Amino acid sequence: MAMTDPLGDMLTRIRNGQQAKKDSVLSPASKLRANVLEVLQREGYIRGYSEDASGKHAALRIELKYFEGEPAIKHVARVSKPGRRIYSGSKELPTVRNGLGITIVSTPKGVLSDNEARTQNVGGEVLAEVF
User: Fold this and answer.
1) What is the pTM of this model?
2) Belongs to which family?
3) pLDDT tens for residues 15-45?
4) Domains assigned to the chain
């Protein structure tokens, strides 16, 4: 059966892994997923990620981050879904928790956080929000 929302699946794996206090989780690899993980790592929400080719298909091993036993990611949600795409200009990008969280945006300049997109004055598809 085909997966309709691969990015949503990865975010759910991260959420479930942190609830289960896992050190790392595996997710099938794709360029979009790797770019989103790059933003999460840059912003300090995960320790890192690496490509894991031990199985039949390429996968991404996501190293989850905890602070004093609590997950670094309190909330992660998909915003733009396959059934309803959400786009935003650079000036209308949503802020998460008054700037305490980030919005991940797919722009013509790549996948960026909301702050980076505002700085570069580009808008795009609002992929997810994290705090």
Assistant:
1) 0.95
2) Belongs to the universal ribosomal protein uS8 family.
3) 999 999 999 999 999 999 999 999 999 999 9
4) 6-71 (3.30.1370.30), 76-130 (3.30.1490.10)
